[in-house]
Amino acid sequence: MKRIGSGEFHAAYELGSLRLVSLRDGYVDMPVTRLRQANDKTFGENLPSQLRLVDGGLRLSVNAFLLDDGTEATLIDTGASNAWDPSMGFLPQALQEANIAAERIRTVAFTHTHLDHIQGLILPDGRDAFPQLSRLLVPEEELGRFRAEARLQRFHGREEPFAAGQRITPAIEALAAAGHEKGHTCFRVTSDGETVLIWGDTIHVPSLQFERPEITWEFDADQDKARESRMRIMALAAEEGCYVAGAHLDSPGVGRLFRSGSGFRFEPL
What we know:
Blueprint: E1 2-6, E2 10-15, E3 18-30, E4 35-36, E5 58-68, E6 73-76, H1 91-97, E7 105-109, H2 115-118, E8 135-139, H3 143-147, E9 159-162, E10 167-169, E11 172-176, E12 185-191, E13 194-198, H4 206-209, E14 216-217, H5 223-240, E15 243-245, E16 254-260, E17 263-268
Parallel strand pairs: 6-7, 7-8, 8-9, 13-15
Antiparallel strand pairs: 1-2, 2-3, 3-5, 4-14, 5-6, 10-11, 11-12, 12-13, 15-16, 16-17
């Protein structure tokens, strides 16, 4: 896989016969207390030395990813639109910069249903972000969460549940990665012998969790399951030589993993 274009809000890669586009929705700042050790303990004042902080906090990139086969475009996650901090909601600018018309996106699939992944279905002015949307894929375990989102009421009833092991398209397979949320999903995308794992929120803080994957996140619905899924998905990527694409890896969030001691080392592409 190689990079074939980039800008302020996007980076495009050649993945076999597909184009993979990383789309930067923005970033969100979080307190370091979101990080958790065993038994849900915070670090207190003894912060790990490898943590990279911005103004004393954690800055998480927010990325979505698009797969383009030249005919159809499939979007994995949609960003936050104007539903959270004003530092997010730049997905439309990213699409424009990458010369991708929103009308070409007919399939949207969610890794999970937290607001920074789903609220981009609606633009800040209230219009549909993807006017030709025909498939809206939601993890079956999270249909209730999705249907509880009042802002997305117009999409209720249009969603299509999917399960781990299901093929979304001939090139995209859903892999179980529960823990951060009960239906949290990784998508394995394969084309002409090249594979990328679009893994949602497997990692929140790359400066720490690659080296110390046992560290969890306050908002993990099940911290033990999240830890197990992170170790399993990262081991898969390292052992099979897959590329990875992460929602909260530093933009553009695409690279490769290698084992390093008891953890892993990430090399951006």
